[in-house]
Every structure is written in structure tokens, then in C-alpha cells.
Design brief:
Structural class: mainly alpha
Distance between the termini: 35 Å
Order of helices and strands: HHHHH
Number of strands: 0
Shape: globular
Strand content: under 5%
Length: about 120
């Protein structure tokens, strides 16, 4: 039961941060491309890559913190379902370039962010 509490705490924090970032980006950018989802997915991927390498190879942290951050926080902060729906919406609007760019950028940048986060922690 304690595992659920750690995951839930991380999920509340991640979901609220995602909401705040999405609201900020919506107010400060043009809504022609889902920039907030891209930023959230890339930054969440970077944080997950960095945290997992740090928590396993560097600090050997208590597994409950992995539940809190990796599963809870990153799981609710990043948002694959939003990415999928926004890609679908671009496709429905006939915006083929935006559709392809969204898929390409989210996949490539998130993979690069995980690698970058892991590399950063390993280099320190």
C-alpha cells in the first residue's frame, strides 16, 4: 500500500506541473503547434533519463523515490495521450506537415532527451 502513496504523491506533483506549463505556454505562444506537449514530453524524458541513471548508478536511492519520481511524477507529467490526440487533430485539419513534424520531433527529441539526461549524470 505504501507504494501507491509514493506513486500518488509524485503523480499529483507531475500532473499539476504539467497543467501549469501547458497554461503558461498557451498564453505565451501561437496555438498552431502543440508546443507545450512537446516541451513537457522532452523535458520529462530528460528528467527520467537523468534520474534513473543517478538513482541507480550514482546515489543508489531508496526504491520508494523511484516510485515517486519515475512512475508517479514522470508518468503523470509526460503525456503520450495528449501527443496522440494532438497529432490526430493536426491530421484531421489536413495539416500534414504539422502532423509529421509533431510525430518526428516528439519521438526524436524525447529519445535524445533520455540519452542526454543519462549522459549528463554519467559524466558528472
Amino acid at each position: 500500500m505504501r507504494a501507491f502513496a509514493w506513486i500518488s504523491l509524485g503523480a499529483v506533483l507531475g500532473a499539476n506541473l504539467r497543467y501549469l506549463i501547458a497554461q503558461f505556454v498557451a498564453k505565451t505562444s501561437v496555438a498552431l503547434f502543440p508546443y507545450s506537449t512537446l516541451f513537457i514530453n522532452v523535458s520529462g524524458s530528460f528528467l527520467l533519463g537523468a534520474f534513473m541513471i543517478w538513482s541507480v548508478e550514482r546515489a543508489i536511492v531508496n526504491p520508494r523515490y523511484q516510485l515517486l519520481f519515475a512512475i508517479g511524477f514522470c508518468g503523470s507529467y509526460t503525456t503520450f495521450s495528449s501527443f496522440a490526440f494532438e497529432s490526430f487533430a493536426l491530421l484531421e485539419q489536413g495539416r500534414w506537415g504539422g502532423f509529421a513534424l509533431n510525430i518526428l520531433l516528439n519521438n526524436l527529441l524525447c529519445l535524445a532527451a533520455v540519452i542526454g539526461g543519462a549522459a549528463l549524470v554519467r559524466s558528472v
